[in-house]
Amino acid sequence: MAEVDTVPSASARNREADEPRDCLVARFGADKPLKLDAGVSLAPFQIAYKTYGTLNADRSNAVLVCHALTGDQHVASVSPVTRKSGWWETMVGPGRPIDTERFFVICPNVIGGCLGSSGPASTNPDTGKPWGLDFPVITIRDMVRAQAMLVDSLGIETLFAVAGGSMGGMQVLQWAVSYPKRVFSALPIACSTRHSAQNIAFHEVGRQAVMADPEWRQGRYLIEDTLPRRGLAVARMGAHITYLSDAALHRKFGRKFQDRENPTFSFDADFEVESYLRHQGSSFVERFDANSYLYLTRAMDYFDLAADFSGTIANAFKGSETRFCVVSFTSDWLFPTSDSRAIVHALNAAAARVSFAEIVTDKGHDAFLLDEPELFAIVRGFLDGAAKARGLAPGAAR
């Protein structure tokens, strides 16, 4: 039976990159270029974002939520692409730890993404065609610079909090270093101050899977109306394994067969875990751009906070007045607790205000996205304490 191709056409995916649905778009013209670490400027460019809640009168209750590698701006609302609920609705929303009845939440799609912020799937204004690999390579610091311009455009001088996990946590740390006076409190979850050699290696395998797909066409697949779906699916499958733990995989799947009692003695998806990974890969292709995957994984690889501070992380946080809450998970082997402890030690050495929690769970790196009551209690308690110190009215925006 022939495989049914449910992937949107190149033109449809390109429209979503330029004119995203169900969100706001901040556009910056040639007079407001984004200066990139690569030594070039990006102009014009745009940032797609969602807001939730109400900004109070003195603009002091804004919380910036930074998404992870494959996330987007739809943190607490249904995605128009997948029709699924927001990726962090367990954390963000009315009565949630990041309470949208109390805080004004901003969640932007990162530069280099594919859901409305300028990236390789966007239209190059000089050619009228998708950027592809002509889009400049970006860094975590570039993402944060763009976000700062967005926050400026909203008339917000200081953020009450910046929060995020994984790549989102990297952005949180970069915010605290690049704009220390603008971040009252920071919640970096399941992240590190630099990408490890092992994580860079995992990313390279994923990128090579994408680029080995003949439909990648040297990054020109949008122009040629093709899609490296097999390569991107394999990249996603490999990455998804790193987000879980051996215990979680065993608990969910073990060695159970998929819809059968005995092996087929073939290379079909005999095991449930195989079927699960194939589903993860195929569904990912429907919502994410392959070139964006290359760009964002490379941005994570380049991330190294200490590089600009003589190799000493503590120097990056010297004099910081930001309140930090660092969180890790015992079964996270992608960003193990040792990475979070390094952040805490650096903050202690810099005499910064920091609290730390290691949560016992078998859910792996993805635990920050799942139902973890201890995480919810920690975030709620930290933000309540910071709000009291900030002088925010309890329970609702003033």
CATH class type of the largest domain:
Alpha Beta
The SSE order reads: HEEEEEEEEHEHEHHHHHHEHEH
Assembly form of the protein: single chain
Strand order of the largest sheet: 1-4-8-5-9-10-11-12
CATH topology of the largest domain: Rossmann fold
What's the architecture of the largest domain in CATH terms? 3-Layer(aba) Sandwich
Apparent shape: globular
Taking all Cα atoms into account, the compactness measure Rg is 21 Å
Distance between the termini: 60 Å
| Poorly predicted runs of 5 or more residues | 1-7
In helices, the fraction of residues equals 25-40%
Q: How confident overall, as mean pLDDT?
A: 93
The biggest sheet amounts to:
8 strands, mixed
Summed up, the domain count is: 2
- Total beta-strand segments: 12
Keywords:
single chain, 398 residues, alpha/beta, Rossmann fold, Rna Polymerase Sigma Factor, Chain: A, 2 domains, eight-stranded mixed beta sheet, two-stranded antiparallel ribbon, globular
Fold and architecture overview:
- This protein is of the alpha/beta class and 398 residues long.
- It folds into 2 domains: 268 residues, 3-Layer(aba) Sandwich (Rossmann fold), CATH 3.40.50.1820; 97 residues, Rna Polymerase Sigma Factor, Chain: A, CATH 1.10.1740.
- It contains 11 helices and 12 strands.
- α2 packs across α3, α4 runs antiparallel to α8 and α5 crosses α7.
- It is globular and about 65 Å long.
- The N terminus is likely disordered.
